[in-house]
What we know:
The protein is mainly beta. It has 4 helices and 50 strands.
Amino acid sequence: MQPLSVFSSSRKASLFVLFLVAGLYLPIPAETSLRLQATLSDSDFSGSDTIIAQVLESGDTLTIRHGEQFTMPLPLDTAWHLCFTATELEKCYTLQHSGQNSLIEREFANEGITLRQGSTGEKPPDLNEMEDPKISETSESVAAPSESLAEEVVRLRKVVVRAQRRPKRSLGKATVSAKLMKRLPGLAEADVIRTIQGLPGVVASSDFSTKIYVRGGGADQNLILLDNAPVYSPVHFFGLFSTFLVEAVDEVDFYKGGFPAEYGNRLSSVLDIKSRLGGKDTADTWMKGSSLKISTFATQVHTEGKQGDARWLLAGRTTYIKQILDFLESIGVTDFTVDYNFFDLQGNLRYDLGAGSHLTLSGYHGKDRLNFFPILLDWGNTVIPLNYVTELSEKSTAQTTLSFSHFSQSFGVTNLFQFYNKITNATFRQSVEYRGLNHHRLKAGVELNRFETVFSNQQDVVDIKLVDKETYWQHTLFAQDTYTLGPADITGGLRSTYISTLPEYVGLEPRLSLKYRLPHQQAIEASAGYYLQYINSILWVDQETLNEFYYPAKKGTYNTLYPSNSWLFSLGYNREKWLNQFDFILEGYYKALSRLLVFDPLVIPEDANENLADLPLVDYFKDSEGYSYGAEVSLRRVEGLIFGGASYSRGFSVMKDRGDAGAYYPKWHQPHSVKADLAVNIRGPEALFSSSQNFFWRTSTQLSYSTGLPFTEVIGYTPAHLQDQGHGIPAGGPTSGFSGNQTVLRGHRNGARVPPYFRWDVKVIDVGRENKWNFSWTILNITDNENIFLYSYDRANPPKRTDITQFPFFPILINYEYYF
């Protein structure tokens, strides 16, 4: 199939988005929705001007008034947790419903939940069996079996629940659940990072990479945490998978601006990944929910269970990409094969200690190996966090984290060179949250980090080996206060960091954000912050590398690397449940970056007396700086017969290296981007056709259209001994003895641009029974658009360019899951 023209790609994207937005306006079938109509009469809230009601299961929030009736949607279920939050007070109630009415009427009073006058078809709960609601972050329920559908029996027991959960979507922040990850079309299976790439303001450089570039920032500027432990370069080859297993993930909080003071050491974003706990609250079992997943390129297994106060989950995955490619080559489908394999292990063990305390041990270990002669690569991650959470009082909570993170990678070409990079990070983190002051919510903490970094470069052809090893300490104090003044929340925070490699330097990072709530679930939010990053990726060339090579801020013989920094400003408006169906967000941002690392061996002074191989790597860098700005708009419907969303991003990024005259676009510069996804429930809850026994049948599609990324054109070649070497070295300089060598003549740095990117994926079938089995079939790049990955050039003058494209039309991505 011939590649689509830019015009045809744009036209397809426009038609799809119009179809998507039109489809989203279909109403939710009334018979499949539940609504809560209630009044908060609890006298403890009588003096509060602003009260936030939130359904924890859905994240839906509503501003209400004491004693006045309000209405909220409820997700389809039989039990919910509803929290009411004022400035100095929070109460959480468990609401259960086993009747058949779609309208649930309740009154939330001091003594508990009562049925509203006029409600029928249900028996009130026995208030003698209920615990009093606590002014704390604990309260959850277990329902006793009902003897009939018309009856409701409630028995409460106390377990830990997250207090005052924030809305699922707000300025610069989105919470992505594992459920959403599983519903979207995937390259092979549900994927954490691929789902994040589908959000506005996030640039994915290619089909072959799970790296993300957020609002003009580099791939190394994203803080990725697994249960509070940092993770470095969580990627697998080909971009088919990121390292995290969805079965072991509960949800991901993704911040792309205005992130709280507790997060640091990155400039652009935070991915806070929370593990899913194993087992069920209501029963003890050794292997409840175990599963086997088989896809086109990998197999995954997982098991989970609960015994008493202990619960656990363990998942593992391995690939057989090599075997699949070998088979396709043998039948003539492709002429490409590669010796590649990887595996992942992820899980957690939690023990409830009682009195609002619990201990959780999590872990991830993965390893990749690629042998593509003469290229040999291997890399891997090990992450082990231990978290202890306890209630110090009804108004304060403490969390202690001990974590270990290890990342290593090697990259080499046989008989030519080899790079090696390692990061080991041990962390102690202690934080305390206090809610006892009127109108204030305080949080403070300390982080103690021990790092060990190793970078080596062995050049076999010239018998040179450079080794740079550093062991150092990095300590941080942070504090934050959220002050509620009527409908406004004002949050101020500060981080202070000391690093032993720069003993005379102390980094201060002030942060400030404002949220003003308007009627009808609307809000205006603004944030401003200064961010520092003490470990950075080395920018070798403009072409993307498979992994990041990390290097710390430190002092060298001729050069000092101070931490990279950024100023980030954002302003936005959001409205939840617009027309009772849509979440709408409009955001704008500006980011200024400086002190980014650029490798340049020519920065060494000409009169340097040391052997160049003996100098630390820090002396081979120069700085770069830049800025970015843009706007993003998104519209999303999160449930119903037809659900999904569309977004548009407009961004601009520019960089400039120290000592260079000209500015240039970075490799992730993407002025325009349109992303959309759409899902249809054919059978099941909220579906076109109802079904029994938890059977579901749905289909979904995902589209991405964006401006092509920049690249540097090759315009010709010249003999190296005739090329002026610059920096005061005349023609015939360091390569004068190699007259057969050629120097590449290039155009303006990143002055050219590949054609626009367009890809349309369809999950044709997604069918199964909840928690029993699931089969899905996905068609990748249904239009067979030839998106450019990079260009290669021959050695002629002028050079001839060859296109290297990304994923073609691929119709056999299948995934089967079976739950035991």
